[in-house]
Design goal:
The complex is a heterodimer of chains A (312) and B (428). Chain A has 13 helices and 9 strands. By secondary structure, chain A is of the alpha/beta class. In chain A, the strands form 2 sheets. Chain A has a 5-stranded parallel beta sheet. A 4-stranded parallel beta sheet of chain A has the order 2-1-3-4, with helices on both faces. The chains are: A alpha/beta (312), B alpha/beta (428). At the A-B interface, helix 4 of A face helix 6 of B.
């Protein structure tokens, strides 16, 4: 099977087979990361650029090193310090980058839908590295990879996503991805952070951690942003932490071998306790490694290549 | 000068008329309606299989002049109206300067006169500077030619200002046209709040942001006895509020736009900013309620809220894009194709909603085929099939979510004062 997409904009549009292909391709990629010589020549002569309109050291570095391990030329554009300040339109910025000859652009933007707009207006491939409150497909892919790696399968698992569902692109992308594998998905958080009509997405919404976490196989904890409290969506971080911070007392509701994920960076003591973050159920560090593997797989598939090439 | 419109289906809801007949125009006046009118010496329009209607009136357009001529001006806006089948438009006062004084009203009227295509009825602001604080000089505005007042584009936030406006306009017998929006609830909103705002990750504007203000304004109209007109009504419960108020005898009227009647929030998944508009495109449930309200008479008229924008204001990140749809050149075709041809709206009702509907709200001299009336006519070819091609619009605003769609039922000829001003999409 070949991956026939110019762009990767969201998990909603991906088929189960496409997701499977990406996850399968990431397995040999992870081996590359663990080698002594972490370099394969596969994407030599290809050029990619990361364009981040919103800060994120973690995701940007992950894409950059993924490209480098595959021998692509990678350039990072720190956008806030260049064209926007000079008043250039996004369309002109993209065109300028395109005519420099890049094959692929990784874009993060604080406004939902911007990668879609960009993809329509450029011949480069576009990977969405997170757009506003919409989607963050590579995060969902690395979460799914991590779950599959630990559990052996995704099929039929019970997954709880905890926290600020309303503003979370990670939650949305996970919901789309996991639901294609028959997972039972639950979202839990304060009622002001549960988006309208979320259950039409095929999930069940909870306000109670005890009910939401009962018998789950996986708990994915979302980052809480302090601005949400300032916007009046909950009264204080203390009250939030008292009700929704994932701590050891919650884990007993879940299955014994429950897996704990967090997309990072963590606010310890707000949405997750240190003991859980560092405990035996947590795969939070493994997620970061898997993120590189999944992004390598994606770059490889999108800039041309079939799975067999890498295995040898 | 005789012009004979021959053999068309003449629909004039103002006179309960719907019959295949001839219509004769002499010296700009409708002089005769009947069968087999003598055509000696007359220019003849073959109107067989056409709908011959009173000139359509769009009571809600933004012509942008003065101040925003890069978006639209009175010449391009009235050209757009003429090819769109409208013989008259009412232009909103949120220009630069705003229409809060007689000289600006006169400027618009002179420009419109010079353009010489369709009638332009200016609307003045409710408040000085459109600032929502003090009432404009309403009597002076009316004397200069305004037909109503509105702060459209933004709501009148202060209830006491709206109360005074309704109280004060009562003595002139004009409506206050209200843009109903609670700005705190709608703040930063990009689209209708609901399932699709959830999955597209865009901040929602709840239906309640409109309904709160509709409820307030209706209550104030009830308190004062003034006439409140709800602009671009878009939600199910706003309709319910209007129905209940009418039953209590409140003087309330309302308009709805073609886009709110035919497009749902689901289409925003492409993040196409041409579909970004305020109030936002609503969900299917609201659309259904709006269509039912067209049928049962709750809605008084269809108005486009024609909001042309410059390309740069739309060709950007969705969240940064301006709100508004360029509507004059697609309104009739959209309603014909999506509602009339689909059997959702009777063609007779459509004509009423575009002609005597708005004329009655504003007390305009028009919207009728009375013998002796000025000959403003809209002739529609219900079988014409055309593609919406914004690049060919007369309007400077190419911002339409209907672009590329093939629609059936277009304006054929637009006649103002007995003179053909537009024919089949072109200015004559």
């Amino acid at each position: 099977m070949k991956f026939n997409r110019k762009d990767l904009l969201g998990m909603r549009e991906l088929s189960r087979e496409e997701i499977q292909l990406i996850l399968d391709t990431a397995i040999p990629m992870k081996d590359v990361i663990k080698r002594d010589i972490k370099k394969v020549p596969t994407l030599r002569g290809k050029a990619m650029v990361t364009v981040f309109y919103e800060n994120s050291t973690r995701t940007r570095t992950s894409f950059e090193i993924a490209g480098k391990y595959l021998s692509a030329d990678t350039v990072n554009l720190a956008i806030s310090s260049s064209s926007v300040q000079k008043g250039e339109s996004l369309r002109d910025t993209i065109k300028t980058i395109e005519v420099m000859g890049f094959d692929l652009m990784v874009m993060r933007h604080s406004m939902s839908g911007t990668p879609q707009y960009v993809a329509r207006n450029t011949s480069m491939s576009v990977i969405n590295a997170g757009d506003g409150q919409h989607e963050h497909p590579t995060q969902a892919l690395l979460d799914m990879y991590s779950i599959r790696e630990s559990k052996g399968t995704l099929e039929g698992l019970k997954v709880a996503i905890v926290g600020d569902i309303l503003h979370s692109r990670v939650a949305r992308s996970n919901i789309y991805g996991l639901s294609k594998f028959g997972c039972e998905i639950r979202v839990v958080g304060p009622s002001t952070l549960i988006p309208p009509e979320v259950e039409r997405m095929g999930v069940k919404a909870y306000y109670s951690m005890e009910q939401a976490l009962r018998d789950v196989d996986v708990i994915n904890v979302l980052r809480i942003q302090r601005e949400r409290q300032e916007a009046g969506l909950f009264p204080s971080l203390d009250e939030y932490a008292n009700m929704y911070m994932l701590s050891n007392r919650h884990l007993k509701y879940a299955k014994e071998d429950v897996l704990v994920l967090h997309p990072g960076p963590m606010n310890r003591g707000v949405e997750i306790s240190s003991e859980v973050a560092e405990g035996s159920h947590s795969v939070i560090n493994e997620q970061v490694t898997n993120g590189v593997a999944v992004r390598m797989a994606l770059l490889f598939l999108m800039m041309g290549g079939s799975k067999d090439e890498i295995a040898g | 000068m005789r012009l004979l419109v021959k053999g068309g289906r003449v629909i004039d809801p103002d006179n309960d008329l719907d019959q295949i007949m001839d219509l004769l125009i002499e010296d700009g006046i409708i002089s005769q309606i009947g069968i087999d009118i003598d055509q000696t010496g007359a220019e003849v329009i073959d109107a067989r299989n056409m709908l011959v209607c009173p000139g359509f009136i769009d009571m809600h357009v933004h012509l942008r002049e003065p101040g925003f001529e890069y978006k639209e001006d009175i010449v391009t806006g009235t050209r757009a109206a003429a090819v769109g089948g409208f013989t008259a438009v009412c232009c909103m006062p949120n220009t630069q300067p705003v229409v809060d004084s007689a000289p600006v009203v006169r400027f618009i009227r002179e420009k419109a006169e010079k353009a010489g295509l369709v009638r332009v009825y200016p609307i003045g602001t409710i408040s000085k500077g459109q600032a929502g604080q003090e009432l404009s000089e309403v009597a002076d505005l009316l004397a200069a030619g305004c037909v109503a007042i509105s702060d459209d584009g933004k709501p009148v936030v202060k209830a006491n200002v709206m109360r005074n406006a309704l109280e004060y306009t009562k003595m002139f017998g004009i409506p206050v046209l209200s843009h109903c929006e609670d700005m705190e609830l709608s703040q930063d909103g990009q689209m209708h709040e609901g399932y699709f705002s959830t999955i597209y990750g865009l901040k929602g504007i709840p239906a309640a942001a409109e309904e709160l203000m509709v409820a307030r304004d209706i209550r104030l109209a009830e308190l004062t006895g003034g006439h409140i007109h709800i602009c671009h009504l878009s939600t199910k419960d706003s309709l319910e509020l209007v129905r209940q108020a009418r039953a209590r005898g409140v003087n309330v009227s309302c308009e709805v736009t073609p886009h709110h009647l035919t497009l749902s929030d689901e289409i925003l998944g492409d993040y196409d900013s041409d579909a970004k508009v305020n109030p936002p495109l609503r969900s299917a449930e609201h659309i259904q309620a709006l269509i039912e309200a067209l049928q049962d008479g709750t809605i008084d008229c269809i108005a486009t809220d024609h909001a042309p924008h410059h390309r740069e204001a739309k060709d950007c990140e969705f969240q940064l894009a301006a709100m508004g749809i360029s509507g004059l050149e697609t309104a009739v075709a959209v309603i014909m194709d999506r509602l009339v041809q689909e059997g959702q709206l009777d063609v007779y009702d459509m004509v009423r909603l575009f002609s005597c509907g708005p004329a009655d709200i504003l007390g305009l001299d028009g919207g009728t085929l009375n013998i002796g009336a000025r000959a403003d006519l809209t002739i529609i070819d219900p079988a014409a099939v055309r593609k919406v091609e914004p690049e060919k619009f007369q309007s400077k605003g190419k911002n339409t979510p209907f672009k590329g769609q093939i629609l059936t039922g277009w304006p054929y000829i637009t006649i103002v004062n007995g003179k053909i001003v537009a024919r089949e999409g072109s200015i004559v």
